[in-house]
Specification:
Helices cover 21% and strands 27% of the residues. The chain is of the alpha+beta class. It has 5 domains: 144 residues, D-Maltodextrin-Binding Protein, domain 2 (3-Layer(aba) Sandwich), CATH 3.40.190.10; 123 residues, no CATH class; 256 residues, Rossmann fold, CATH 3.40.50.200; 102 residues, Jelly Rolls (Sandwich), CATH 2.60.120; 99 residues, Sandwich (Immunoglobulin-like). Strand 23 and strand 24 form a beta hairpin. Helix 12 runs parallel beside helix 15, helix 13 runs parallel beside helix 14 and helix 15 crosses helix 16. It starts with a helix and ends with a strand.
Length: 816
Amino acid sequence: MTMRRLYLLAFLSLLTGAVALGEVRIGTLAEDVDRWQAIADQASDLGIAATVSSYSEAALYQQVSFWAAFGRANVDLVEVKVDWLPGVSGRLLDLSPYEKDLEAEGVSVYRYAGKAVGVALPWREDVFAGVLARSPNAGEALELLILIPGGQSTGMATPVPTGAVPVPLTIGGIAIGKPSQNLPGVDGSLEILAQAMSQAVPQGAVTALSRVPEPAREAITKVAEMFGIPLTPDGTGVQLVVVSSGGAVPLAAGAREQASSPTGLSLVTVPLSQLGTFLASMAGRAVIRPPYIPVPLAVSEGANLVGAGAFHSQGITGAGVKVAIIDLGFRGLADSQARGDLPYSVITRDFTGTGIDAGYYHGTAVAEIVHDIAPDAQLYLIKIGNEVDLDNAVTYCISQGIDIINHSLGWYNTNFYDGTGTIGDIVRRATSAGILWIQAAGNDALKHWEGYFSDGDSDGFLDTEITFTASAGDNILLYLTWDGWPQTADDYDLYLYGPGGSLVASSTKTQGGTEEPTERVSTTAPQSGTYRIKIQLASGGVKKLELFSIYQELSPRVSSSSIPAPGNAAEALAVAAIDWGHYATGPAEDYSSRGPTNDGRQKPDLAAPDNVTTGVPYYAPFPGTSAAAPHVAGIAALLLSEEPTLSLAALRARLLSQCTYMGDANTYGAGRLEAAPQGPAPLPDLAIQDITYSPATPTVGSTVTFQVTVVNQGAAAAGTFRVRLAGAGPSTEATINSLAAGASRVVSLSLPLSTSPETFTAVADYYGQVAESDEGNNQRQVTITGPTPLPDLVIQDITYSPATPTVGSTVTFQVT
């Protein structure tokens, strides 16, 4: 037990009268169970026993508001919804006396009405974590608060191994290990490749792989493949990406720029003979790394399932709409056109320079689905190979007036799966130009693991043993990242062991504060059997880890938060998959990636069918969210063809409004897409009609109760939507399940008056769940000015001396 832990427990004993080192009972909302279980597992390594129980919102409120008042709650540490305040604030332990200690651990304290009632949760804003004031396990519960993400890098967190020893890997007689030096801004995989070439040809530079004798040549090739470093076709150079935020950086050592993009990305070819010199000369001047390489999200009958037939019967076929399919290749395009599955009018653009019809069939299969649904839409087939190509493809789409982009590719190790990063920024550039981005959500629910690093046996490796089964010759591709974006000094390494226990591949880059938190392993299974993944903390702090296996299912696995970029970006419309054969009933495909995102947002956005038939080799049937996404893109084209004046926000809202509820929002989003022509059909129009509040003159810090009147002034009923109220401080929400045309509804919401004066804004349909005839009249504001405090003078006491004065003597008075 650490000194800090003893201090906290002793401190709590003064407050509560006793400290019971019993089992901490964690009460959580159902959607957050996995996150709390990871914290409980980490607590177990510290000797703190904890159990996690999920509750409905109503049941959890009952525990906090009712049973806690009698000291009979079944929980010690509990998730508390912000809108339960102020009613439950008195049930929560005031953390103010040791707020500084919590913040020193990196934990953000949640304050309400001048009281520290809990700590903020990084994965959602509407809930915080609090300790019940009458809990017998308050001290242990407090330690669990310190383990909440963001506060586990110091103090009582899992001990960090010092001097962890990397495991050596030998390929073709070449030793592969940590880089001998840490060049600022240079991805460690490039340094490792340069070291490998120095070992292969110690007497001189490698000018071309063809001149390197075996087995050294094969070893260099395998190292490049293991880290995903593209070699030039002639074997004389490597392709790298240079990222500069301050304008173009002059290149050195014979490097040649192949392409650049508007956001400061440059694709560069560097001669093998000059790689080490180039890295040393560029260190600290820009970020140098291998290109991001996307992965096809694939593992027709769907047209009528999503409602295309009804549009076609009314002559709505996508005319006047431009749809771009951005993919890795369109092999078999000519054959598809000859069959009539794609028109000869398609416009193609190749940003890779390798030929539009070379490489993958994937893009052709995707395009066929869009064409089935919107046969008269103008298709643009755009081939890319990396993020520089993607950025330039978006520039091209903007210049061509593209309305819709379909992207059935996933990008791994480009962010912490929270919507940030380079790929998310590229999507935002497209949507800012008014383009609807339709994105395959991913097929990773069975091939994903996440959790916090724990090392109970102090061997430097993650305690959890993660395995998968592969056959000899199978491709293996693993991506590891952790919560340290965009640059980190926390250094993790990734190892892959074969069925016989020998080390097959590893990624041991050095993260020294200027590199991205990523490790990647790509190899071929040398034999059939069970493979083990081991993760080592080389140096730094305990972080949450994210591991993806592209080809094999993992054991154990975590399906939640398994959506790769850019499906985890708010601006992208992420599409889950349901097999077309049971589209009406579900369930979703077991491999369809699940939400939420790592910053707590609901994903995916909606679901569409997969396993449909195309005329393309290897894609008959076509499984995966790669096939589901183009169904949505096609329907979006029909909706826009029917009503060309729809804005991006209105088109997105209309798509979501034409979904049928299927269940868990982090599996299905709004539900399965079943669109229908709008025709002359009326739409609802939600507005805030009035806002009243009480008390009439509240004081700063007091709770104000608002009565918000929502009216549907449109000509059609509105489905489920949320009403949000926000001031300068926290916000709160309420759900209205339906509102008939012409009807109104009053919702009661409470917020504290944080300052005076303070403006509060109420918004109907805050999340855009309802397609409306007018999307611009959904909010109303009210400004509250509290009374100015006035002095109130009172004579509190009068004393005098002497106690028994005589007549004529002087009496001295003390007036308070």
